[in-house]
Specification:
Structural class of chain A: alpha/beta
Shape of chain B: globular
Strand content of chain B: 15-25%
Largest sheet of chain B: 8 strands, mixed
Number of domains of chain B: 1
Strand content of chain A: 15-25%
Structural class of chain B: alpha/beta
Radius of gyration of chain B: 20 Å
Strand order of the largest sheet of chain B: 2-1-3-4-6-5-8-7
Oligomer: heterodimer
Distance between the termini of chain B: 48 Å
CATH superfamily of chain B: Thiamin diphosphate (ThDP)-binding fold, Pyr/PP domains
Helix content of chain A: 25-40%
CATH topology of chain B: Rossmann fold
CATH superfamily of the largest domain in chain A: Pyruvate-ferredoxin oxidoreductase, PFOR, domain III
Largest interface: A-B, 71 and 59 residues
């Protein structure tokens, strides 16, 4: 794979890194996210790859927030500990990012703002005071001061401002032409101020553009788009960070494709509505985060025992309880694999990149209907809030295939009727998969229940029937295990002594981390696992490696436990539970420490 | 829908295990008759049942049906009806299911006004768990878990429904088969959420709210000078603590169901073999 970035070459030299790390930071309410998104959009339109991240809150209390954009001509898929250009609306923004700023970093700020008037850039960095508010007022309103800063950033990075114009049109187009014009003007004033007032040669950044056309989206949006592509027509949910973007994406769009979004009164209602829609035959989904999963768990058992196809998406955040709602964690694995009283058959699928959020969502709907089972679709905050570029062909709608499973219609019921001509929705077929009729199908009327039931779906406590139905539901899981290709994504040298395993959003950071490890002559085989149940058999991979390291964002190593259980081998664990995702350089350092003892790897 | 459907077609071959004399027999018969009288048949009908004695109704009736978890029957019904508006959806449960564990959903189902009906078998006691007080039990009703009575005001479900913007609020007595059937039928025909609270006596665990008690005290609004379209008059009846009423207490003739307000009409079960037409538009939005 490509070498993602070059080392910082020191003060005075023209900065030649392949990637540029840019950020805007201030107080919540300063429009940080929308401004950052505009710049990310502009870079994407200019044919650069973009990987964004958000700092929501911080180590100390307050409303600090930042939007960070890593971008390069080559693909970028991780955050790194380096910030080259920072628009700081507050002094705090600089303080929060001291670890990432370096000699030669440019800090754009408004020195005319009372709270910034005493600001001085730290030693070795370039402070660039631009009268953001005054210039915004000149362009038509102080509200555009962030846009002035974007214009200044264009000049600092030698980025053609026309690309920004396109992004401004997209963002403000529906607010009228004059708003768009004013914003463009604001950006121009920022750009010109830098040209006139400041010696350009000081910065040494040069953003290269390409003719590539990219789309820019985050993991929640990819899940939403995947759902529509898969024929999902009913979504019910209750707002919760960081899953809300799934619902907001679907709202309005699902309706365009003949579906509907219901904002339920709580998660209990959300999953039960989705269950009802699924019983009626719609492809249905709900999305939530940890606390919502807890609330939904009782009905999850009902979904499984009534053999209803349903996709339940968990966009994980830091727990337990309310935890840290805006922070990253992969702490729900045990709950998803084992949660619920009794023994609940299930499938657990966990995409490892933003694009995979799209593909795995489509797959989740097919799995749900083929096996008439609930499918947990597991994402995490890091993917939910990351906007990433992809070539549009990545989301090939012509490649989407729909598998509705053993759906039987009128005229196809005969094989599934009992001697009294009654339809048997829980018929114990050899592969465990029963026929399914949708309401409205003549002759197919049946009930089902969360009570143990017979083939007709009626309550029973008969021992033989109980065993038959438990075996049938268990058999479905076995059938799925046998039929499915529960494969993994593999990177690096397949013969390397060191095997790194991970799940979820760590894939990007690990892929870039491998390039850094390579520079230290550390060879790694990396397996990223998107299927958690059923899951690939990793026994051989684990046995053939000298060192096995499992990387995940939780404290106890839930996935590592699973690997040890599966392979009967002890593994090393690299865990992070600060609430912040792994960065490529940090991960490389942690892995190399596991192998060789303490040392530091820097980009 | 066939016109020759009889109520017996909605009966399954399973014999109810309710106690002899249970009010739920009459409640269920009225539901089946109301469904048949309104031109429905088992293949286009979806019954959602809650947990409790009343929840067994899905087994004793024949239709598409789901017997779910405790208290969540209404959201299931909303999902079914929203996904396929061609179906006749009837949700049924008890006073515990609807007004205790599911009270939150009740309020929101009322205000959402989905075109379906909700029949609550209110016996003012927990029967299936053998005699504990319920949310509609009287303040001084002595039970296994309330030796001196619950000492808390009973829920007034009709008042809850009215305050939540209910568009059809009615009450019946299961033993008055004809009136009960008529009123449930009106609830089915109503454009919106047709709510019927049914006095459905528990002969085993409630010796206060008995058949005799209701027979002696119930006042039929058909015999009173009551205009069900008059919301103030409805409020007066509903908040009258002295009287047990039977009849349609409130009906909003201008009710527009949720599905109409949201332009829902298609059966969401119908999806193409691949991604929907124009799905690539979704990708383009991300340029």
């Amino acid at each position: 794979m490509q070498k993602p970035f070059r080392r910082w070459e020191g003060i005075g030299s023209r900065y030649m890194a392949d990637d540029l790390n840019w950020a805007i930071g201030g107080e919540a309410g300063d429009g940080i996210n929308s401004t950052g998104k505009i710049f990310a959009q502009a870079l994407s339109r200019a044919g650069r790859h973009v990987f964004t991240s958000k700092d929501f809150a911080s180590r100390i209390r307050g409303g600090y927030t930042a939007y960070k954009v890593r971008n390069a001509v080559e693909n970028v898929e991780s955050v790194v500990d380096r910030l080259d250009v920072l628009i700081a609306l507050t002094q705090r923004t600089v303080e929060e990012n001291m670890d990432e700023l370096h000699e030669g970093s440019v800090i754009i700020y408004d020195g005319e703002r009372t709270m910034m008037e005493d600001f001085e850039a730290p030693e070795g960095m370039i402070g660039l005071s631009v009268p953001l508010k005054r210039l915004a007022e000149d362009a038509g309103g102080a509200i555009m001061q962030n846009i002035v800063a974007l214009g200044a950033a264009c000049e600092v990075t030698n980025f053609p401002i026309e690309n920004l114009d396109e992004a401004l049109e997209k963002r403000f187009g529906d607010k009228g032409e004059s708003i768009v014009r004013n914003n463009k003007e604001a950006a121009r004033l920022g750009e010109e101020y830098v040209v006139e007032e400041i010696d350009h040669e000081d910065f040494g950044y040069d953003i290269e553009t390409t003719d590539a056309d990219y789309v820019l989206l985050n993991g929640d949006e990819a899940i939403g788009m995947g759902a529509i592509a898969a024929g999902c027509r009913f979504y019910s949910g209750y707002p919760i960070t960081p899953a809300t973007d799934v619902m907001e994406y679907l709202t309005g769009r699902l309706e365009r494709y003949g579906g509907h979004v219901v904002q339920a009164e709580d998660e209990l209602a959300a999953i039960n509505m989705a269950l009802g829609a699924a019983r009626a035959g719609a492809r249905a989904m709900t999305a939530t985060s940890g606390p919502g999963i807890d609330l939904m768990t009782e009905t999850f058992g009902l979904v499984a025992t009534t053999e209803t196809p349903l996709v339940i998406c968990d966009v994980m955040r830091s727990g337990p309880s309310t935890g840290m709602p805006t922070k990253q964690e992969q702490g729900d694995l045990d709950a998803l694999l084992y949660g619920g009283h009794g023994e609940v058959p299930r499938l657990v699928v966990a995409p490892t990149t933003v694009a995979e959020c799209f593909h795995k969502t489509i797959e989740a709907f097919n799995l749900a209907e083929r096996y008439q089972m609930p499918v947990y679709l597991v994402s995490d905050l890091a993917m939910a809030v990351t906007e990433q570029t992809y070539p549009p062909e990545e989301f090939d709608m012509d490649a989407v295939e729909i598998d509705r499973g053993n759906l039987v219609g009128e005229g196809e019921l005969d094989p599934w009727l009992n001697d009294s001509e009654q339809f048997q929705p829980h018929f114990p077929a050899a592969d465990g998969i029963s026929p399914r009729t949708l309401p409205g199908t003549a002759g197919g009327a049946h009930m089902t229940t969360g009570l143990e039931h017979d083939a007709l779906g009626r309550r029973t406590e008969d021992s033989e029937v109980r065993v038959e139905q438990v075996d049938k539901r268990t058999q479905k899981v076995r059938t799925a295990e046998e039929e499915g290709e529960w494969d993994y994504r593999e990177f690096g040298d397949p013969d390397a002594d060191t095997l790194v395993l991970s799940w979820g959003s760590n894939e990007g950071a690990m892929r870039e981390g491998m390039a850094l490890l390579d520079e230290e002559s550390i060879d790694v085989r990396f397996i990223s696992v998107p299927y958690l149940f059923p899951r690939p058999d990793l026994t051989e991979a684990v046995e053939s490696a000298e060192e096995v390291i499992v990387v995940e964002c939780n404290a106890t190593g839930q996935f590592a436990d699973v690997i040890e259980y599966d392979t009967l081998e002890r593994v090393k664990r690299v865990n992070k539970y600060t609430g912040v995702r792994f960065k490529a350089d940090e991960l490389a350092t942690r892995i190399s420490e596991e192998l060789e003892g303490p040392q530091e790897i820097t980009p | 829908m066939s016109s020759d459907v009889r109520f017996i077609d909605f009966k399954s071959d399973k014999q109810p295990t309710w106690c002899p004399g249970c009010g739920d027999f009459g409640t269920m018969n009225g539901m089946m008759k109301a469904l048949a009288n309104t031109g429905n048949d088992p293949d286009n009908t979806f019954i959602v049942a809650g947990i409790g004695c009343s929840g067994k109704i899905g087994t004793y009736m024949h239709s598409y049906a789901l017997h779910g978890v405790h208290g969540r029957a209404l959201p299931v019904g909303i999902g079914v009806k929203t996904a396929n508006p061609d179906l006749e959806v009837m949700v049924s449960g008890g006073d515990g299911d609807g007004y205790s564990i599911g009270a939150g959903h009740f309020v929101h189902a009322v205000r959402r006004n989905v075109d379906m009906s909700y029949v609550v078998m209110d016996n003012r006691i927990y029967g299936l768990t053998k005699g504990q007080f319920s949310p509609t039990s009287r303040e001084d009703f002595e039970t296994a878990t309330s030796p001196e009575g619950p000492k808390q005001a009973p829920v007034n479900p009709l008042a809850l429904a009215l305050s939540a913007g209910g568009t059809f609020i009615a009450q019946t007595f299961s033993s008055d088969a004809q009136r009960h059937t008529e009123i449930v039928q009106e609830a089915v025909e109503h454009d919106g959420f047709g709510f019927v609270n049914v006095y459905s006596p528990c002969v085993t665990f409630n010796d206060v709210d008995t058949y005799d008690y209701f027979r002696d005290t119930i006042v039929d609004l058909d015999e009173e000078d009551h205009d069900p379209t008059d919301r103030d008059a409805a409020a007066e009846r509903i908040t009258d603590p002295e009287t047990e009423y039977q009849g349609v207490i409130y009906r909003d003739e201008d009710s527009v169901p949720y599905g109409d307000l949201h332009d829902l009409g298609s059966n969401m079960a119908d999806v193409p073999d691949g991604a929907p037409e124009n799905a690539t538009d979704l990708v383009r939005e991300f340029y």
